[in-house]
Amino acid sequence: PVPTISWRRADGKQLPRKARRHRSSGLLEIPNFQQEDAGLYECVAENVRGRNVARGQLTFYAQPSWTQQIRDVRAAIEERVSWECRASGRPKPSYRWLKDGEPLLPQGRVQLEQGSLTIANVSLSDAGMYQCVAENRHGVIFASAELSVIAIGPDFSKTLLKKLTLVKVGGEVIIECKPKASPRPTYSWKKGKDILRENDR
């Protein structure tokens, strides 16, 4: 006689509630298939003469989708810049980086690790448009951000040059001069209008 057909999951889990079974045609329909729906399924056919089981593995695949993107950065010369991008997908996406459309390779000050990019001692030549690329065999996605490198002239607004009074002749005086500047400035000292030269003292 025509067999009756039923469906089950071989791992013992319940069939998804959203699954629809069409008994007459032996069809199992799973709308909006998600990762938790993946697994080994069994179709059981039986009549008064016996039963038979057919198994099929349903595997979930997904193209990459961003969970963390990169954003524009403004950095002063000699600062350190770090970006990190993350994407979900199945199989797990791999990452690569581009600068102004050209592949970016790890070298010297530039370090790449998975979805992370670090540039140490930023220089003006590092300015440009960067892209993080996440891909698997089902798709590729891009995230873009611009690195702007700025120079800062010496700023003494937060530096205090103290007036020092010697209490003891022959004592030592230290005057610190640490302005905010990028790139790092060169220094010279004057006493009055005369440039100080280094000597024994």
UniProtKB/TrEMBL annotation:
A GO biological-process term: cell-cell adhesion
List, alphabetically, the InterPro entries matched.
Answer: Ig-like_dom (IPR007110), Ig-like_dom_sf (IPR036179), Ig-like_fold (IPR013783), Ig_I-set (IPR013098), Ig_sub (IPR003599), Ig_sub2 (IPR003598)
PROSITE patterns in the cross-refs:
IG_LIKE
Cell membrane recorded as keyword = yes
Gene Ontology CC entries for this record: membrane
Q: Tell me, in one coarse class, where this protein mainly resides.
A: membrane
Highest taxon of the lineage: Eukaryota
Q: Which keywords has UniProt assigned to this entry? A: Cell adhesion, Cell membrane, Disulfide bond, Glycoprotein, Immunoglobulin domain, Lipoprotein, Membrane, Repeat, Signal
Show the SMART domains listed in the entry: IG, IGc2
SUPFAM superfamilies per UniProt: Immunoglobulin (SSF48726)
Q: Where is the Ig-like domain?
A: 1-59, 64-148
Query: Which Pfam families does the UniProt record give?
Result: I-set, Ig_3
* Key word Glycoprotein present: yes
Localisation per UniProt entry? Cell membrane
Under the subunit heading, UniProt states:
Interacts with PTPRG.
Its family remark reads:
Belongs to the immunoglobulin superfamily. Contactin family.
Q: What is this protein called?
A: CNTN4 protein
Q: Give the organism, scientific name.
A: Loxia curvirostra (Red crossbill)
**Coding gene?**
Cntn4_1
